[in-house]
Structures are given as C-alpha cells and as structure tokens.
Amino acid sequence: MTLLTIVESGPLTTVQDLGRPGFAHIGVPRSGALDRSALRLANRLVGNSEADAALEITVGGFEARTNADVWVAVTGAWCPISVGGEQIDPNTPVRARAGQTIRVDAAVGGLRAYLSVRGGIDATAVLGSRSRDTLSGLGPEPLAPGDELGVGREPDAPIPALEISPWSPPSDERVEVPVVLGPRQEWFEDAEIEAFLGTVWALDAASNRVGARLVGDPVTRRTDAELPSEGMVAGAIQIPPSGLPTVLLADHPVTGGYPVIGIVSSAAIDAFAQLRPGQKLTFRHA
To answer: Which pTM value belongs to this model?
Structure first.
C-alpha cells in the first residue's frame, strides 16, 4: 500500500537505513544514514527497529501527503515541522491522519533531518540495505515530486511512552573533532601535523555524502610522490596535492591514493552530517 506521496523533495531526500557493511572487497562502501544516531532515534520514537529505513532530508523543503493514518517523527537537523498544518516538535512521535501533509521546512540548525514512519520505509533492498549510495548509484533513486512510498510491517513494539532525547538543535558553534593520527603520518613533518591540528577549518559548500571538504591553511606533504591506492574507511582524512583535507563520509570510495593523515570516529561522522557550509571545526588528539 502507498503510504506517502511526495509533494516536494527539497535539494536532496534519500531513503537511508544503517547501510550495507561487508562489501568493501567488491567496491561497495557501507553508505547508510550520515547521522546514524539521529536515524536510530527517529526509529525508536515510532517503535521501529533502529535499522529500519527512513528519509534523510538535506536542508529541508520537503513535503509529503499521507494516504493512511501513521505515526511519524523527525530528528537530526532543527527544522520547522508541521503535520496537517499544525506545528509539531522535533524528536516527538506524532500521529498523522490520512490525507494530511507532513512538511519539513529549511533547517535552522544542522543540515540533515530524518523522517521515520512506523513500520519503516518499504523500498527494494540492494545487498541487504535500502540505502541510497550517491557515489555508486546503488539503492532507491533520490526522491522526486510524485514518488510514492510504502511502509513495512507493523512493528511489535509500542510507541514508547517516554524517550530521553536531546531538545537543543545541533550547534552552529565551532566543533572540536577527535582524531587518531595515521596511518600515513610519515608523509608529513611534525610541524605540519601540529599545524593541521592547530588550524581552524571551515566546511566547504562543495561537501556531500561522499566527503566533507575543508578550507583553511593547506597542509604541506613531505613529498610529491604518488601513493599506491589503498583501502579507505569512513572517517579517513585524506590530504590531496592541494593540501586541503577531505574527510571521507558514508558514500566514500573504498580505495584512494592520497595519504591519510588521521581518522575520526564514527561518532564524529554523525557530527559532520550536521555541519553547515562555512561552519568552523578543529581537530584534536583523540
């Protein structure tokens, strides 16, 4: 049964779950929601499994019409949200009635919101996941007006009576990101590594689900030699010839030839999901 009809899809709205781990050996990254903690919370709020598929809404400008009564919740970026024209709070389960519209307007804090529906978004799974991989093109196409979405089986769990969840929007202040140096630390002088850690970086507007591009004082490598391609993981910080770091995110390529100066944790990747273009960040030793 069709549950949602998309009216407006905004700049980028995709179906995402917790991804498809275990396929890097055939060139497929994990993908999945960029802010996994927000996805998990959105699913818990409506009684779903944390791994169920939901909608990742980038920036906002999203609207859908319901074709049946359903519980919904929106987490992640702080956006004006309405159901049937009535404003609702983020991080709160709400019953949407058949024929009502669900609207997620432009984010005022953070960048990516997660809309869950009770039962989970029903889409064709590829390699065990319903996630859209924007680099390889695996998974459901990004949503467009007129698209129709179904819902999965009614979960056994009830709508929770109380969910302890944060009520403040993602911060637009400078973010401090812990990093483990290496594995190509030897490609950089000690002074350059300290400069990298001491620089206040800003998120480039060209960033996406593949990688967070940073602008600031370039990092100088010891050599202009080429590094043979090697395996890459989400959170790896590559330093290309420009000296401007790229932090690999969910849809990253599984191999790369730029030296990796350090790696950030999976929790830090959640934070990168909510950084806005121009927002400042620094790195520190984990």
So the answer is: 0.96
